[in-house]
């Protein structure tokens, strides 16, 4: 059984974009709500509160708790923030897979595998590029053995 974790670079990029959006919201609030000072500070506090909650607590919890297990018989994803969820899929039930990679995915970690089976699908998010290729090759091998 092989254990895969999510690439932390994806979390850092998402958190950076989150804080940039909060800074943009602060700029816009200072520009357009300067006449209503109480509302301006409330909106700025809301932006930074959401950015802090998401970037400092929720995203690191998600990335720390998400683990993918691949064995010869089963594919399992353990994930969740407040409630842990487990998804299991038998390798024999997998019909096809789709590998999604974004530009600069080797650096950013935005590699995804969508696994489809009869009656369901499973997404393997934010994989390292080497792990993504390894999982895709292993699943293609198992699918081609059945054909």
Overall description:
- This protein is of the alpha+beta class and 147 residues long.
- Helices cover 52% and strands 27% of the residues.
- It contains 4 helices and 7 strands, in the order βααββββαββα.
- It has a 4-stranded antiparallel β-sheet. It has a 3-stranded antiparallel β-sheet with strand order 5-6-7.
- β2 and β3 (74-79) form a beta hairpin.
- The mean pLDDT is 94.
Write the layout of secondary structure elements.
Blueprint: E1 2-5, H1 8-32, H2 37-65, E2 67-70, E3 74-79, E4 85-90, E5 94-101, H3 105-108, E6 111-117, E7 120-124, H4 129-146
Antiparallel strand pairs: 1-2, 2-3, 3-4, 5-6, 6-7
Helix pairs in contact: 1-2
């Amino acid at each position: 059984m092989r254990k895969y974790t999510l690439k932390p670079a994806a979390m850092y990029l998402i958190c950076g974009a989150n804080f940039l959006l909060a800074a943009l919201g602060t700029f816009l609030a200072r520009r357009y709500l300067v006449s209503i000072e109480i509302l301006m500070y409330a909106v700025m506090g809301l932006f930074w509160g959401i950015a802090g909650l998401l970037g400092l607590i929720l995203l690191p919890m998600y990335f720390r708790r998400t683990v993918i297990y691949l064995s010869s018989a089963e594919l399992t994803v353990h994930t969740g923030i407040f409630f842990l969820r487990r998804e299991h899929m038998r390798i024999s039930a997998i019909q096809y897979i789709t590998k999604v990679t974004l530009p600069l995915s080797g650096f950013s970690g935005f590699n995804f595998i969508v696994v489809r089976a009869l009656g369901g699908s499973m997404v393997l998010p934010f994989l390292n590029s080497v792990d993504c290729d390894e999982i895709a090759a292993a699943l293609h091998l198992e699918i081609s053995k059945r054909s």
